[in-house]
Amino acid sequence: MIARVIVDISAGDVDRVFDYVSIDGTERGSRVSVPFGNRSIEGYVIEMSETTDVPPEKLKTIQSVIDDRPIISEEFLRLCDYMTEHFHLRKIDVFRLFLPSKMRGGRIKSLEKNVIEISSEYKNEDPALFIKKSAYSQAEVFEFVREAGSVEQSYLNANFSAAAVRNLLTRGVFVSHKETVMRTPYSNIVQRDNTVVLTDEQRSAVDMILSGDKPTLLFGVTGSGKTEVYLNAIETTLKSGKTAIMLVPEISLTPQVMRVFRSRFGDEVALLHSGLSDGERFDEWRRLLTGGAHVAVGARSAIFAPLENVGLIVIDEEHDTSYASESNPRYITRDVAMFRARYNGARLVMGSATPAVESFYRAQQGEYALARLPNRVNKREMPAIEVVNMCNEVMYGNSGMFSAKLVTALDECLKAGNQAILFLNRRGYSSYVMCRKCGYVAKCEDCDVSLVYHKDENILKCHYCQRRYANLDLCPNCKSPHIKQGFMGTERIVENVSALFPSARIIRMDNDTTRTKDAHLKLLGDFAAGNADILVGTQMVAKGHDFANVTLVGIIDADMSLHFSDFRAVERTFQLITQVAGRAGRESKAGRVVLQTYTPNHYVYRFATAYDYEGFYDKEINLLRATRFPPFSEILRMLITCENEDIALDATKYAIDEMRKISAEYENDFIYLNAMRSPKKRIQTKYRMQLLMRVKPSDEIRRRVYEVADEVAVKFPQTICFTEINPNDLS
Ligand code: ADP
Ligand code: ZN
Ligand code: ZN
Q1: CA distances from 76 to 48, 244, 344 (A)
Q2: Which of 189, 324, 516, 663 has the fewest CB atoms within 10 Å, i.e. the most exposed one?
Q3: Whose alpha carbon is nearest atom 9 of ligand 1?
Q4: Structure confidence by residue, pLDDT tens digits, 695-714
Q5: 316 CA closest ligand 1 atom index
């Protein structure tokens, strides 16, 4: 038989399939070792065939089948086809997603030990018949093993004569087999019966999730007991003999969360997250593959958990941007989850206190069933959000970063021995331009998104249409010269707080302080343990953490994400405010939120302070409908990068010419099409050009776009060209 193999090399934009003569044990889905040039590399068998076009003298033979079973199941082979087509990816990149990275190339193996037993034919025999009287050491170790049943070989070698052990093995008196030892994280946590009695609301949410044929959107305010709903649904799924996958944003995978799962499901659960050692990760994955565990809990990539017979997939905090992979291979977790749910006939639930506008729209359209948890379990009120107009502060001579109200609140909080969180939005790093007196924000006249200041050229630019504007010296609205460009960082906040409260202990949490593995967990742990009074941080502090002592949350510059040049900027702002506010007063102490803004009249603050998600949704969806942004269209971005600027330009010119022809064919379905330099013009010595399209969502159009991308790859092999669907970040 001939095996068609995708080999594990990165070269070019397209997969190459190579034919090899198969050996015993080769199956569709096997991972194999094959000769390639003058070396040997790994590959995946995607098809078995009787025939090949390769002339016999050129045909090589597979060297070995690496695993004891095909490691890519039928489901994953089909998923690979789906992902290559839907997201326009190379097969090899998709296969790489399916396995723990360190497993490829044999860099990590399971931990195995040799275990020795007496073979069945000698078990009930008199040892005198086959062990000579003089061979004391053989008799001794034989007796020991007969008593013990089965013993690790290393133990025998250390405590008896290794030569005797070897002799008995060679003669077949002893037999040995390998047993895998699992490196299980959090294995010290014991399983407990800690189920709670669900409220009626929770009960009906579970019922809705587990029945029916549509995915469910679980819309529940923070503290409404969503986690309990997921746990319950997972339990029911396990009882019916099926498996479950639960996804959470990486940043929320705190030790507390993992303890919850371990104590609820014991060894049934495998945890997959970036904090694990390679060995642990591999073993957890292997336990899922071999049926040792039936629930996978992890960040985005856990959607590829090697489980069969999946009965339930949970996507917690479904609005979180980390569910879209933004580096190659780019994929949207929800789409993969939908595929797996369809394939397995599994239930899918996506939950959030602030669902993505697109998700809520789908629920309104009847694509998803909608389950609601409008009340908090402990009946506690959401903390009051006080909006401070920073323009007034400027007017009254306070040009610092903290309003008088926030300073007073901090003072009171610290004096009472409580903790505070000061939140700064990292998304603001690409800087918008704003008048500090009247709050005017420079926007694109064509696109209604904020302009971005480009320091190198001293101009303002729209990242959607690339239209350029002169930089502002005076505010066009109030003629004030107090124009603010750039952003403020967490470091400056820490400096300022220290100056105001010299004795306060402060922890800073941002990309810089959390670079090392587990750093963010350590910082959060320190704060939870009361080793600091104030936590200053970016979105990392916003998610899911429970701090009993936090009574104050300060949102330093709420507008930052609002004016980020992204059509989802307002939505993100609403989500962030709701989330950060949820950090205040989680337990018995009442919480308070001070939100600083230069645009206090923006509708997002009205809805956010009232915790009115649906009011916000109605407003937002109408705007999106009017401007024809997703979900009323799909944004496609084709990014072309190349070390050589001229080639990048030529390739882009080729692509836009082709796309213009195509858009003429689908006249009504193209809302927008243009080619331009990317906002980040050059990254890592590569020039970056892009085509931006806004189209009516359609498989056909997407396919045509991908075809053009493939042509670019063939005609301009020096370039790298890929296409994203509704990217979160257009830089
Ligand atoms: P969410 O995920 O919606 O923010 P959680 O699931 O974390 O909410 O629940 C908030 C708190 O309420 C948790 O401490 C949880 O243990 C508790 N809780 C949830 N459901 C119940 C219930 N039915 N009875 C008692 N306590 C509950
Ligand atoms: Zn524009
Ligand atoms: Zn102004």
Answers
A1: 16, 16, 11
A2: 516
A3: 225
A4: 999 999 999 999 999 999 88
A5: 2
